[in-house]
Amino acid sequence: MSLNTATGKVCLWTLDHANPGSLETYVANGGYEALKKILAEKTPAERIIEQVKISALRGRGGAGFPTGLKWSFMPRSFPGDKYLVCNTDEGEPGTFKDRDILIYNPHQLIEGMIIAGYTLGAKAGYNYIHGEIYEQYESWQAALQEARDAGFLGKNILGSGWDHDIHAHHGYGAYICGEETALLESIEGKKGQPRFKPPFPASYGLYGKPTTINNTETLASIPWIMRFGGQAFLELGKPNNGGTKIFSVSGHVNKPGNYEIPLGTPFATLLEMAGGVRDGHQLKAVIPGGSSAPVVPGEVMMDLTLDFDAISKAGSMLGSGAVIVMDETVCMVRALERLAYFYFEESCGQCTPCREGTGWMHRIVQRIEHGQGRPEDLDELVRIGNNIGGRTICALGEAAVGPVVSFVRHYRKEFEYHIEHKRCMVGNGVGN
Amino acid sequence: MLSPDSLSRIDREVAKYPADQKQSAAMSALRIAQEELGWLSKDTIEFVANYLGMPPIAAYEVATFYNMYDLAPVGRNKITLCTNLSCQLQGADRIAVHLQDRLGIGFNETTADGRYTLKEGECMGACGHGPLCLHNNHMMHVQLTPDSVDKLLDDMK
User: Fold this and answer.
1) Chain A contacts of B27, Cβ < 8 Å?
2) Is any Cβ of chain A less than 8 angstroms from the Cβ of B53?
3) What is the 3-state secondary structure (H, E, C) of A250-275?
């Protein structure tokens, strides 16, 4: 198997090889060929963007924004410095796909970043790597050096006369830096607090220069698209949802892990690949796209396909493709208490509705969990949620509300039972 | 205040950014300082700020914003356990109880001999391998069981 159309995988095909993360494996299987061709033929940026548009590649970090369209916003004729930034600040509970790309296919990300940098006219690229994965920060920097030594990066790349370099920037523990403008502030050596938009990063980004920010998996998909064409990538998935997608499955399954499958695959198929719900248990609920995505009852989920449009129609979102599976032993109040705490802890404190609202929601869920809930608490939670959404600079506020409102909506009886009886309706907390 | 080795590591970070953007290396510089000195005192933060030519308050803002910086001394071995939902579903609560029982301390506490500090962490981006923890910020240990935790603790100096 290789970087070709036969494997059915775009990013994690290297796992079928003995030494998946090595430059040798990557080059021996067609790696850096797309870059060589582009530089040799001096492919115009417009043609590259056109292929990315045809591919229907949508941002893999959570928002699902069409990548080709995002690239077209970049003012390429702007004479000053421009930047490409890769977002590997992967800290949304349930999401662990980008770490595997850094480990098992670091060079495809590097090649994707170089091609993106060429297309966007960027002076340099930065990859912002989540603080808690220091080992991958180090190993990816080693891969960058391999790419420099092989002539793919640095001065006069492959004799083309074009200079371009890429660097890794290490985070140090702040979920909010996954928000693209907070990430830019963080690269500038500041607190990671999101900026007002507009201006958008394409006009005022890193150091005030035009900047494009893409997710790791998004950029790692680019070499495949350039080798085999946007149409081939589109055909891996379904219309408006091109390509394969890495789904990170965690929670109550027999085989948690990453599974790269075509967009549009039924959830039931993914669950089977992950070994099914852990032995002896039944599916209760699924968070289909990372902790910010509204929870979906298991029986609804079993009828859904995994693509941006289908999950969105069901009232949730595909997000980063992080699928958290919960079986019948889970107390939804307990589970929500942990998620509510996460958003309270990670709110950057800049906007009052989020700073105060996330703490308020957590305190209410906490008191319900601990048998001190009041009958009016559930409506109060929804009311607070409604007063956060749309009233903050960035999406963290809404991300905090999604779980709260959806847990209360779908599992209201459990919350009411907790308030009335001062204990769980379903036994032992989170099933352990 | 910092060793030549740490300073040259900081210089390598500075070189990643445009010449007039040395502040971009603040996060790495603080990390490197913490690696050498164990934690970040106000003096250390001020030293880093001066070294990078940025106002000390701006470096202090960075040090207080990101949660992997330690602004007070910690034990020789800081263990940060992720207790977020995916890890919790995979057994992190049991590991939390085991760690606290075994060490006789709660979260955010340090053992009397200064050997261990226990912290509760947020999502580390490796959920499929949970329960998991970080040792001294940079080494991840995955698929923890009470037995593997015991071995890990015994191996820490």
Assistant:
1) 169-172, 186, 189
2) no
3) EECECCCEEEEEECCEEHHHHHHHCC
